[in-house]
Write a structure and sequence with these properties.
Layout: H1 2-40, H2 42-77, H3 82-99, H4 103-113, H5 115-129, E1 133-137, E2 145-150, E3 159-165
Antiparallel strand pairs: 1-2, 2-3
Helix pairs in contact: 1-2, 2-3, 2-4, 3-4, 3-5
Length: 175
């Protein structure tokens, strides 16, 4: 009975969030654009929106390249690229925010580009996913090993509960 109420609460919260994203936020953006347009004039307001979007797009490109290089570096050194993946999602979100016309979305986009914000997002994601993690390792020289365990911290060692080896395929020349 409690789980049903919890599911209903969660679904109603998601519904309200979607309504806010689709209806309320664009209306607030439009209202703010009209207010700025009345103060500055129509052409300066449109020019300001275009300049902010152009500068934001250039920043997204620069940060995206930086995050990609960090991702490749992590992969090459054998480090799990979780932080780089979350940073990449933040940069992607910033790009989407700069595509939407409006000052609020541009502020959110700039916030997503800032490294402290990305570190905070990484911390939230790691905190939410650190309870149960499945790690799959595969090498080109040996069988695939599936490790399943619990992580007490993000940089801790896996407490292994089950290890299963997969036999190489018939005719595999890697042996």
């Amino acid at each position: 009975m409690i789980t049903v109420k919890r599911d209903l609460l969660t679904s109603s919260m998601w519904f309200l969030l979607i309504v806010a994203l689709i209806v309320v936020i664009p209306l607030a953006e439009l209202y703010f654009i009209v207010q700025v347009g009345q103060e500055l004039g129509i052409l300066p307001t449109i020019a300001l929106l275009i300049v902010i979007s152009a500068v934001g797009s250039a920043l997204v490109k620069r940060e995206g390249i930086r995050v990609y290089r960090e991702f490749v570096s992590a992969i090459r050194t054998g480090v799990e690229p979780t932080k780089q993946i979350v940073a990449g999602v933040c940069v992607l979100g910033a790009g989407v925010m700069f595509l939407a016309p409006g000052f609020f979305s541009d502020i959110v986009g700039i916030g997503l580009l800032l490294p402290p914000t990305r570190r905070g997002a990484t911390w939230l994601v790691m905190r939410g996913t650190s309870r149960r993690t499945t790690v799959i390792r595969a090498t080109h020289t040996g069988p695939i090993v599936d490790l399943r365990g619990h992580l007490s911290r993000t940089d801790d060692v896996i407490d292994t509960h089950e290890v299963s080896d997969v036999e190489p395929r018939e005719g595999d020349q890697s042996q």
